[in-house]
Amino acid sequence: MEQRSLEGEVAVITGATSGIGRACAEALVGAGMRVVCGGRREERLSELRTTLGEHSVATVKMDVRSPTDATRLVETALSAFGRLDALIANAGVGAYGSILDHSDDTLATMIDTNVSGTVWPIRAAVPPMLEAGRGGDIVIVSSVAGLRGGADEAVYAATKFAQVGLAGALDRELAPRGIRVTTLCPAGTRTEFAMGKGRTPDMPALATMLDPKDVAGAALTVLRQPRRMRTQLWSMWSMSEVG
Ligand SMILES: NC(=O)c1ccc[n+]([C@@H]2O[C@H](COP(=O)([O-])OP(=O)(O)OC[C@H]3O[C@@H](n4cnc5c(N)ncnc54)[C@H](OP(=O)(O)O)[C@@H]3O)[C@@H](O)[C@H]2O)c1
């Protein structure tokens, strides 16, 4: 497939301090992009700047549940690097177990982080993309749980279905104006996700899950697609997981 060069383009990434988001930061910088990385953990953000280089990476300590923080993330892309071409809406949390057993706070945090935390960065990113008139990409990291919910993940699945619904509607709204909205739906991925909330670092299943680099590679492929086309929904599985 013909591939667009991403040299000099700029992306903002939510949840860049670990796992899939961090792998996306590495992949995009490796492809010549400059990235603004968001997350709450300051020491991880600082490590990202050191490792990937301050000429390519700016960081914003931010909470995706805050519309003001989402605006600061996008404004940093414009002030530090002068443009915005892509948003990777990746930040998310999960907890496994019966809907009856979770605390109210756990469920509310999951809904707010995964749903509002996807909406606010999109609302902040779209206006500058439209204004620049160069087109743009919104890549949402949902999950296979957003296509088919499994037992013990009902509310998590609901938040991931919400992302798929949001993306489908936005695609229809924004494609005519040059902005592609793509949803990545990975299956189990070897990250810090849900550690202590259903997963443990020593669980054997981790070894055969997708690598965060696999998901980042998909995000990179999406951005590199020629602007005349779009792919809307990717479902991604490791070879050992049967969906
Ligand atoms: N791992 C899997 O099996 C899997 C499978 C399918 C889909 N996913 C999805 O992939 C995405 C990334 O997860 P991951 O697997 O890479 O897990 P991870 O390593 O735990 O990363 C989650 C990221 O989200 C950020 N985050 C969480 N709450 C936040 C908040 N309120 N404000 C800002 N940032 C916040 C975290 O940063 P801070 O803690 O620094 O804020 C972290 O960078 C999630 O949306 C998840 O649902 C994961």
Folded structure, characterized:
With 243 residues, the protein is α/β, with parallel strands linked by helices. The chain has one domain (10-236): 3-Layer(aba) Sandwich (Rossmann fold), CATH 3.40.50. It is built from 6 helices and 7 strands. It has helices spanning 19-30, 42-52, 67-81, 104-132, 154-174, 212-224, and strands at residues 10-13, 34-39, 57-61, 86-89, 136-141, 179-186, 233-236. It has a 7-stranded parallel sheet with strand order 3-2-1-4-5-6-7, sandwiched between helices. Strand 2 (34-39), helix 2 and strand 3 form a beta-alpha-beta unit. Helix 1 (19-30) packs across helix 6, helix 3 (67-81) runs parallel beside helix 4 and helix 4 packs parallel to helix 5. It is globular and about 45 Å long. The two termini are 28 Å apart. The mean pLDDT is 97. Bound molecules: NADP nicotinamide-adenine-dinucleotide phosphate. NADP nicotinamide-adenine-dinucleotide phosphate (NAP) binds at residues 14-21, 39-41, 44, 63-65, 90-94, 113, 117, 141, 143, 186, 188-189, 191-193, 212.
Secondary structure: elements and pairs:
Elements: E1 10-13, H1 19-30, E2 34-39, H2 42-52, E3 57-61, H3 67-81, E4 86-89, H4 104-132, E5 136-141, H5 154-174, E6 179-186, H6 212-224, E7 233-236
Parallel strand pairs: 1-2, 1-4, 2-3, 4-5, 5-6, 6-7
Helix pairs in contact: 1-6, 3-4, 4-5
The chain binds NADP nicotinamide-adenine-dinucleotide phosphate (NAP).
The site of NADP nicotinamide-adenine-dinucleotide phosphate (NAP) has 31 residues, from helix 1 and helix 4.
